[in-house]
Write a structure and sequence with these properties.
Elements: E1 3-7, H1 11-21, E2 26-30, E3 34-38, H2 42-57, E4 62-66, H3 72-78, H4 85-88, E5 92-95, H5 96-105, E6 110-114, H6 118-128, E7 134-140, H7 146-153, E8 157-168, E9 181-186, H8 189-198, E10 208-210, H9 213-221, E11 226-227, H10 234-241
Parallel strand pairs: 1-2, 1-9, 4-5, 4-7, 5-6, 7-8, 9-10, 10-11
Antiparallel strand pairs: 3-8
Length: about 240
């Protein structure tokens, strides 16, 4: 029997998850409450390029920090306009395999693939790299703070470079969820809030799964109890969906 799972991401973002559950008769229904939009800040690019040049002059190690699969493409698209080639040449540390895969697809070199949470990657990096280093962090305008903040506390310099934003998709642009949804996957605190608002404050009557503890806690404040995968990875989410 086919089971339909609503995921608060775009169809493109859901592509890999659909591939993972293909043999389990699960159909992923994309319901993107947020839409991607690249942003470009010449001043931030200039600061990042200058900071990297200074780090190299001091003999300080520098790395690229990637926390989202949405960051690599706009980073690579914008870099040539701002002399950012040296940034693209940095070894990258990525949050989870999905982000690492997106980085490799655009030609970036991933040296460290951490667990699927910012806090997990921060722990791995601060254990491996004890000397203060520079991290160039291409990110969204609204991004989680645990990864850059943990690295700064450990003595590293993190240069934030905003290359995209996630804006709310107007509720009228979303179709009504299809009938007989077996489960809902909530992908971030913001998407959880908009999911509830778009449904008039009445979440669907089915199991809900959050990608991680931060989203689970945000959902709980809105009255939704969520399960979370055993590991913060798409593969573990696919395994969880197969149990519904």
């Amino acid at each position: 029997m086919t089971r339909r799972v609503l995921v608060t991401r775009t169809a493109e973002d859901c592509r890999h998850l659909q591939e993972l559950v293909e043999e389990s008769d699960i159909v992923i229904e994309s319901w993107p409450v947020l839409r991607f939009e690249p942003v470009e800040h010449a001043k931030q690019w200039r600061h990042a390029v200058e900071a990297l040049a200074c780090a190299c002059d001091r003999g300080q190690e520098a790395r690229l920090l990637l926390a989202s699969p949405r960051a690599p493409h706009p980073l690579c698209e914008q870099a040539p306009r701002h002399g950012g080639g040296p940034i693209l040449g940095l070894p990258a540390a990525a949050v989870g395999r999905t982000t690492a895969r997106a980085a490799v697809e655009v030609g970036l070199r991933v040296a460290v693939t951490g667990p699927g949470t910012g806090a997990g990657l921060a722990t791995e990096l601060t254990t491996c790299f004890t000397e203060p280093g520079l991290f160039v962090f291409p990110c969204g305008i609204d991004h989680r703070r645990e990864l850059p903040d943990a690295l700064r506390v450990a003595g590293h310099t993190v240069i934030e470079l905003q290359v995209y934003r996630m804006d709310r998709l107007p509720p009228a642009a979303l179709p009504a969820p299809v009938e007989e949804i077996s489960a809902v996957v909530l992908t971030s605190p913001r998407s959880t809030r908009y999911y509830v608002e778009n449904l008039g404050g009445r979440p669907l009557d089915c199991p809900h799964i959050a990608l991680g503890p931060t989203t689970r806690d945000a959902a709980r404040t809105l009255g939704i109890e969520c399960r979370i995968p055993a590991r913060p990875e798409m593969e573990a989410l696919a395994e969880e969906l197969c149990t519904i």
